[in-house]
């Protein structure tokens, strides 16, 4: 009887250790929902667009507002800490697609690169407002 209790206790301990180790290896969940201020440096100059994200699992939707491009919707993904979103804007009849690719650092900051096709590339940082 005592051996069964010892075996059961050992089995439970092993399961708990496996569960803790399994959780330790997972990246923390990142939630970027909310308003962010970006600092963008590109061939077009410096700008500080405001981005509002809505996150549903790995899917991102939201709104982009800047002095240079005006107002536009965005779509993207977040997987672990990797973030990617696309802004499709229309500036005085010219279609522009901005692709932001980066990483979320902590819960209130991010940084990465910007690809604007023929309009050039750049870099960005972001801080939660």
Please characterize this protein's 3D structure:
With 129 residues, this protein is an alpha+beta fold. The protein contains 1 helix and 9 strands, in the order H-E-E-E-E-E-E-E-E-E. It has one helix at 2-24, and strands at 34-42, 45-47, 50-56, 59-66, 70-79, 82-91, 94-105, 109-115, 121-128. An 8-stranded antiparallel barrel has the order 1-3-4-5-6-7-8-9.
Question: What structural class should be given to the helix and strand makeup?
Answer: alpha+beta
How confident is the prediction overall: mean pLDDT?
A: 85
* Corresponding CATH architecture: Beta Barrel
Beta-strand segment tally: 9
- At the first level of CATH, the class is Mainly Beta
CATH fold name:
Lipocalin
């Amino acid at each position: 009887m005592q051996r069964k209790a010892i075996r059961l206790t050992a089995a439970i301990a092993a399961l708990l250790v496996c569960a803790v180790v399994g959780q330790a290896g997972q990246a923390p969940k990142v939630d970027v929902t909310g308003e962010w201020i970006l600092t963008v440096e590109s061939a077009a100059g410096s700008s500080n667009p405001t981005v509002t994200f809505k996150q549903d699992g790995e899917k991102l939707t939201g709104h982009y507002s800047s002095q240079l491009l005006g107002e536009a919707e965005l779509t993207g993904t977040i997987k672990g800490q990797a973030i990617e979103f696309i802004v499709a804007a229309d500036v005085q009849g010219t279609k522009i697609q901005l692709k932001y690719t980066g990483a979320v650092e902590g819960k209130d900051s991010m940084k990465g690169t910007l690809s604007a096709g023929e309009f050039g590339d750049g870099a960005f940082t972001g801080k939660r407002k």
